[in-house]
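Postdoc handover notes: sequence design on the structure in folder B. Input tokens:
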């Protein structure tokens, strides 16, 4: 038989359809394994494919182990990119999202995943009405509050960002400089749960890198704490502006003997600055400083010991642990998001809407949020009858993504849930996303909506797929992404080498947690291996193989259990070299079963063509 990819994929898929049906209708125990949702902003690249393949292999392995498991896909569809595209291309965000989802679905279809045809789209009312319900519950129970406050303002994107979304003073998406602005917004009261959060994160099952970054966000550190007079605290990392009457400074810092401390002459105000500077500057003559306007230049050098001595002598000094994390601002001054379900009346204040509120989904954006002009947002207050309005702001999309995975397994996610078995995502996206999930579920647990504050039994954070980028005639490797224009469309590779070759290659390139460098030329090795398997199986006479079993499958099963997929591929290559000399029907069968999660199309079709279905029955009833 010739090795014809189109033929293999076509019939492999047909068999898969039949297999999916059989698994759906079985009474097996569920194994819930889900990938983080993509943003439908265009097309998928090999980086997404890596995520989905890891997910798909785990599902198929679990099926072999006797479970019911599927690959699901959902869309994190609200947010800024749709608004930007809308302004640039004069198109309605909803239409843009829809057309992108269509394109991406087409790509996913080509990947031949063990897919369950149920998708979630966070921009649909059936989904976000629950985001609104969560919001209302949190607001009622005071885990969300409204406050006028100084916020991080991204002038390029015309929006507010949470502290975690500002990286080195710039917006995480726009990369533009962030300024401060005073507006009224909703916040999640993270401070209220900070102790629980800190304890739980320290005991969580996160991969080390993600765990450390989360601990860093919360940032519990020892500080000296000086009470001068009872008053409020106000401090900032590194640069301490203590306009009030309490001084904090860090106990443990890398350069902890290097301080810069200053006292200003501004009325009763004490101003302390900490810097990684060469020497310690310190002036103890406050009276002198109070008189002197040019204090900046009037430093007297001191060492740390002297400084502490001075402070101890003059003030009451205590130690305290300080959390860096701040409350999470969830209001966004944007149109394309979950509407905040409240009504604002100038006379009577804010009310929570009794029923979830729909977003008018077909508005065009012309620089300004179109919702301000939307008539239905203006209503009469039920109490004072004056004209008031529905809240114009929408929720941060991280609010939606903090719980979307729940929606796969329950019609009503407000009612208590089961944990997911495995959750998979890329290392970059995981850091913020998982931190917000943790905050969200710590609150859900406090409210007794869930029994757990960690909704995942296991989290897999995979490395990135890097590809060549050329800048100023220099070539280097960068994360595959749309913005860097170095993304590779998996469909193109699948057209040449088939989905099985691409799956095998992506898994073979490195351990799950490692970053891998994309190199299209090297895929040929996996393609040839699959071709050899095909020719071997289609030429043999299985009746001539005897029923003995002289190969231990423990090693390969161990690698599956530990998710060492690159090792599985090399083990399969080793096993295949010896497969003739074993002369065992059982090994022929087991090899195909082991191969199935990695290269399902080929193993499906061989299973049927070679008559294994007749001898051993349905492939997934042969559990290992
Ligand atoms: Zn009113």
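Designed sequence:
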């Amino acid at each position: 038989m010739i090795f014809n990819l189109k033929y293999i994929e076509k019939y492999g898929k047909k068999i898969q359809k039949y297999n999916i049906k059989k698994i759906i209708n079985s009474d097996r125990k569920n194994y819930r394994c889900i990938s983080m949702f993509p943003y439908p902003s265009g097309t998928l690249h090999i980086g997404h494919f890596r995520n989905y393949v890891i997910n798909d292999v785990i599902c198929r392995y679990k099926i072999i182990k006797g479970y019911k498991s599927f690959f699901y896909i959902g869309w994190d569809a609200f947010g800024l990119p749709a608004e930007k595209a809308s302004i640039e291309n004069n198109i309605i965000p909803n239409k843009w999202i829809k057309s992108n989802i269509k394109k991406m679905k087409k790509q996913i279809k080509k990947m031949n995943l063990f897919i369950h045809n149920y998708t979630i789209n966070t921009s649909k009312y059936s989904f976000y009405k629950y985001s609104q319900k969560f919001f209302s519950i949190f607001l009622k129970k005071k885990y969300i509050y409204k406050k006028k406050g100084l916020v991080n303002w991204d002038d390029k994107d015309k929006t507010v960002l949470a502290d975690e979304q500002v990286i080195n003073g710039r917006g995480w998406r726009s990369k533009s400089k962030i300024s401060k602005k005073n507006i009224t917004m909703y916040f999640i009261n993270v401070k209220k749960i900070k102790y629980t959060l800190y304890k739980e994160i320290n005991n969580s099952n996160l991969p080390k890198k993600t765990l450390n970054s989360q601990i860093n966000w919360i940032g519990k550190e020892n500080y000296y704490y000086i009470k001068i007079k009872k008053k409020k605290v106000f401090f900032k990392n590194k640069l301490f502006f203590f306009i009030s009457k309490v001084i904090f400074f860090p106990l443990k810092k890398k350069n902890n003997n290097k301080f810069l401390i200053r006292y200003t002459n501004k009325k009763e105000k004490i101003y302390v600055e900490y810097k990684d500077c060469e020497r310690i500057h310190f002036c103890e003559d406050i009276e002198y400083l109070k008189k002197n306007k040019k204090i900046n230049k009037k430093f007297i050098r001191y060492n740390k010991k002297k400084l502490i001595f001075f402070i101890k002598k003059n003030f009451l000094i205590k130690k305290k642990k300080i959390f860096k994390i701040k409350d999470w601002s969830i209001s966004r001054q944007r149109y394309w998001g979950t509407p905040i379900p409240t009504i604002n009346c100038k006379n009577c204040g804010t009310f929570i809407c009794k029923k979830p509120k729909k977003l008018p989904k077909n508005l065009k954006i012309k620089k300004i949020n179109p919702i301000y002009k939307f008539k239905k947002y203006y209503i009469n207050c039920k109490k004072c009858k004056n004209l008031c309005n529905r809240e114009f702001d929408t929720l941060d999309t991280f609010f939606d993504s903090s719980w979307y995975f729940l929606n796969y397994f329950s019609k009503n996610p407000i009612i208590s849930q089961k944990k997911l078995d495995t959750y998979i995502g890329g290392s970059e996206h995981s850091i913020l996303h998982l931190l917000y999930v943790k905050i969200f579920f710590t609150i859900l647990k406090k409210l007794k909506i869930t029994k757990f504050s960690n909704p995942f039994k296991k989290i897999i954070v995979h490395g990135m797929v890097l590809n060549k980028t050329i800048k100023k005639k220099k070539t280097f490797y960068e994360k595959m992404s749309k913005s860097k224009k170095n993304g590779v469309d998996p469909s193109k590779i699948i057209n040449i080498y088939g989905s099985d070759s691409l799956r095998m290659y992506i898994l073979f390139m490195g351990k799950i947690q490692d970053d891998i460098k994309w190199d299209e030329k090297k895929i040929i090795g996996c393609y040839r291996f699959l071709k050899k398997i095909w020719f071997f199986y289609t030429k043999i006479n299985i009746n001539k193989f005897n029923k003995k079993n002289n190969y231990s499958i423990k090693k390969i099963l161990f690698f599956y259990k530990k998710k060492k997929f690159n090792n599985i591929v090399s083990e399969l290559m080793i096993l295949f070299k010896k497969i003739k000399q074993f002369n065992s029907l059982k090994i022929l069968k087991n090899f195909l079963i082991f191969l199935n999660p990695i290269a399902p199309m080929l193993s499906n079709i061989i299973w049927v063509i070679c008559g294994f279905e007749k001898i051993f029955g349905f492939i997934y009833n042969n559990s290992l």
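Context for whoever picks this up: Confidence is low (pLDDT under 50) at residues 226-304. Don't rerun without checking with the PI first.
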